[in-house]
Amino acid sequence: MKRLALLGMPNTGKSTLFNRLTGAGARVGNWPGMTVDMLSAKVLLAGGMVELVDLPGIYNLHGFSDDEQVVRHFLSSQPVNGLVVILDATQLDRQLNLFLQLRALQCPMTLILNMADEARQLGIHINQEKLSAELGCDISLVSAKYGHGFEAIRKALEHLLRTAPQAMLAHTEALHSDEAIEAELDRIVSDTINTPVVLPPNLTRRLDRILLHPVFGLPLFFLSMFALFQLVYGLGTPLQNGLSALLGYFNSDVLTPVLRHAPTPLTSFITDGLFNGIGTVLSFLPIIVLFFVFMAIVEDSGYLARAAFLMDALMARLGLDGRSFVMQLMGLGCNVPALMGTRVMRSRALRLLTMMVIPFSLCSARLQVFLFFTSAIFKPFAAASMLFFLYLTSFAMAFLTALVWRGKFRNHEPLLLELPPYRFPTTRQLLVQGWQQSGHFLRGASGFIVAGVVLIWFLTHVPFNVAPASPATLAGHLAAWMHPVFAPLGINRLLSLTLLFGFVAKEIVIGALAVIYSAGEKNLAGILAHQIDWVQATSFMLFTLIYTPCLSTIAVLKQESKSISFTLLAVLWPLGLAWLVSFVFYQTARSLGW
Amino acid sequence: MSIPLYQMQTTQSGIILSINAGQELTRRMAALGLRPGRQIKIIRKAPWSGPLQVRIGHTEIIIRRGEAEKIEVEPT
Ligand SMILES: Nc1nc2c(ncn2[C@@H]2O[C@H](COP(=O)(O)OP(=O)(O)OP(=O)(O)O)[C@@H](O)[C@H]2O)c(=O)[nH]1
Ligand SMILES: [Mg+2]
C-alpha cells in the first residue's frame, strides 16, 4: 500500500488534519507535544487505499528527545511515497525553516499551510503562487479545524501520489548546513509574506494580561480548576442518580422476574456478581464522560502552556519544570497518556523524576472511588471539601516525592516552550471526545471490570455452604492474611480485598465493593455508612489515592523508562508512602478521639 | 550597547545580536525563531525568578532566565 507521512512542527494541526481525512481519533490539544507516538490510518485517495501516518511534531531534524526519535526512526526505516508537511500559516517566519531542512531528505513533498482562519484574522497575507514557485512544490492554504480547503488537500495528495508511484526511504544522513538555510528562509519570507507591522489587539493578549498576572495568575488558575470540578460534579451527579435509578428498575422489573426460577447460585452470580458490580461502575459513566469533555476544553484552550509559565518557578525548586506540572494536570484524566507525554523532555533525569510524580495525579478512575465514598460517608458540603482535600493531597504527595528524589535525578534541561494562542474546541471536537471516552470507559468496563467482578464473586462465595464474604470463604482467608498490614490503617478485611483488586485497575474497586456487600449502588452507600466511620473511610481513600494507580501505569512506566529498577522504585515508593500516610492519619485521628 | 536578554525590561524590545549556547540549544532556539537579527520583545516576567514570556514575530515563547542569559540583545 502507498504511504504518506504527516510531518511538521509541534502544534500545527497535524492530528486535526489526520482525523479529518481518515476519521481516526488521534488526540488533539493546544499543547506542543500532544502526539508522541506514530498512528496510521487508511484513506481513499485517487481510487486506491493509502496509508496516512500521523507523527509527533519536530522542530528540526537534529532533535533527540524520545518523541523526535519516533519520527527519525520512522523516516529511516519506513519507505514513503511522499511527505505532507504541515506548517502554521501564522508562523511561517520560523516554520518554513523546517520545510527547507526537509528537502534534504529528497522525498517528494507537498506543503499545507494550516490555520488559515487565524492568519486571516491577524492580517497576514501569503503570496501562494510565488511561494510555491520558490519552494518548487504544491501549496494549500487550509483550516483543518473548520474543514476549509480539503478539496485542495485531496488534490495535492493525489498529485503527490501520481508523481511518486514508488515508495522510497528518506535520505536521513544528508543534511544541509543550517546557516545557508537561514539566509534563504529570510529571503523567501520577505518576498512572499506580508505581515502588518503593528499587531491588532486580540483576545489572547487581553486574556494573558489577566490570567498570567504576576499576583492573581496562580490563584486564578486554582480557582478556575476548582470551579471546573464543581461544575462537573454539579452537572454529573443528577445524571448519575438518574442512571442508577434506571439500573435499579432494570434489576427489579426485568432481571429478578426473569431469574425467578433459576438456581440460587446462578441468580446470585448474575444479580449480586455481574449486575451489581458492573451496574455500580456504569452509573459513573455520565460524570466521567462529562469530566473528559471538560478536560478536552482545558487541553484545547491553551491554558496548559500558561500553567507551565505560572508554575515553573516553583517546579524548578523541586527539580522539575513547568511541563512536569502540565503532565500532572493531564494525568488527572488518565496517568497513561501523561506518562507518554514526558517524551518531549530531553533530559532523562528530568523525564524519570516527572514520571515518578505523575502517578500521584488523581485520575478519573480514582475519582470514581472517591465520589462514591465521599457521597456515602459525608454530608454534601463535607463531601465536596473532602474531594478537594484529596486533590490537594495528590499534589502535595507529588511535590514531596520530587523533593525527596530530586537529588538522584538532578538535571539541567533548558525550558523553551511555545505559548499558543487561546483556542476553543468546536462542538464537533467535543462530541467526538465525549464519544471516544464513553467507548473507552465501556471497553474498560467490559474487560477488566467484568473479569474483576467475576473473580471477586467467586472469592466471596466459594465455598457455597457458608455465608457470602464471611471469614470461611476464600476471600475471608485472603483478607485474614493481609489483616496485619491493614489493621493499623483502620482498613477492614473486606475493604483491604478491594485494594488488592484496585492494584489491577481502580475502576474495579467499587464493582468489587458492590459484590462483596452484594448490593447495588443505592444500598451499598447505606451499608458502607454503617460499616465504617469517616476516619476509616478517609484512611482508605488516602491509601487508594497514593498507592500504585493500576497495572497499565506500571506497564507504561516500564516501557518508557526501559528500566526495571526505576519501575520498581516507582511502584514501591508510593506503596510505602501510602501506608505511612494512612497510618499517620488514622492513628493521629484515633488518638485525638475522633 | 548589548545586554543579556534577561536584563531587558518588561515590554522593552531589542534585536538579537548573538546566542552563546551549545549547538543543540542554538538549533532549538532557531526553530522557535530565536536567531541573530530577529526582533524580540519581553512581554512579562514570572515572579520568583520564574521564566520570561517573549515574542518574536507571531510566536510567543517562555524561556527560563538561565537560557535568557545566553542571548545577547541590543535594546531598541
Ligand atoms: N484556529 C485553528 N486552530 C486549529 C486548526 N487546526 C488545528 N487547530 C488547533 O491547533 C491545536 C493543535 O492541533 P493538533 O492537531 O493537536 O496539532 P499537532 O500538529 O498534531 O500537534 P502535536 O501532536 O503536538 O505535534 C488544537 O488546539 C487544534 O484545535 C485550524 O485550522 N485553525
Ligand atoms: Mg498531533
Detail the topology: elements first, then pairings.
The complex is a heterodimer of chains A (594) and B (76).
Chain A: E1 2-8, H1 14-22, E2 39-45, E3 48-54, H2 66-77, E4 82-88, H3 92-102, E5 109-114, H4 116-121, E6 125-126, H5 128-135, E7 139-141, H6 150-163, H7 178-192, E8 193-194, H8 203-211, H9 217-258, H10 264-282, H11 285-301, H12 303-317, H13 322-331, H14 335-341, H15 348-357, H16 364-377, H17 380-405, E9 416-418, H18 427-461, H19 474-486, H20 493-502, H21 507-516, H22 521-531, H23 534-546, H24 551-561, H25 564-591
Parallel strand pairs in A: 1-3, 1-4, 4-5, 5-7
Antiparallel strand pairs in A: 2-3, 6-8
Helix pairs in contact in A: 3-7, 9-10, 9-11, 10-18, 10-21, 11-18, 12-13, 13-14, 14-24, 15-17, 16-17, 16-22, 16-23, 17-23, 18-21, 19-20, 20-21, 23-25, 24-25
Chain B: E1 3-4, E2 13-19, H1 23-31, E3 39-45, E4 52-56, E5 59-63, H2 65-68, E6 71-75
Antiparallel strand pairs in B: 1-6, 2-3, 2-6, 3-4, 4-5
Distance between the termini of chain B: 10 Å
CATH fold topology of chain B: SH3 type barrels
For the record, the count of structural domains of chain B works out to 1
Strand tally of chain B, please? 6
Radius of gyration based on Cα positions of chain B = 11 Å
% residues in beta strands of chain B: 35-45%
CATH homologous group name of chain B: Ferrous iron transport protein A (FeoA)
What is the beta-strand fraction of chain A? 5-15%
Task: Give the integer mean of the pLDDT values of chain A.
Answer: 90
In the CATH hierarchy, the architecture of chain B is Roll
Give me the number of helical elements of chain A: 25
End-to-end gap of chain A? 69 Å
Globular, elongated, flat, extended or rod-shaped: what is the shape of chain B?
globular
Described by strand count, sense and barrel closure, the largest sheet of chain A is: 6 strands, mixed
Determine and state the CATH class of chain B. Answer: Mainly Beta
Helix content of chain B: 10-25%
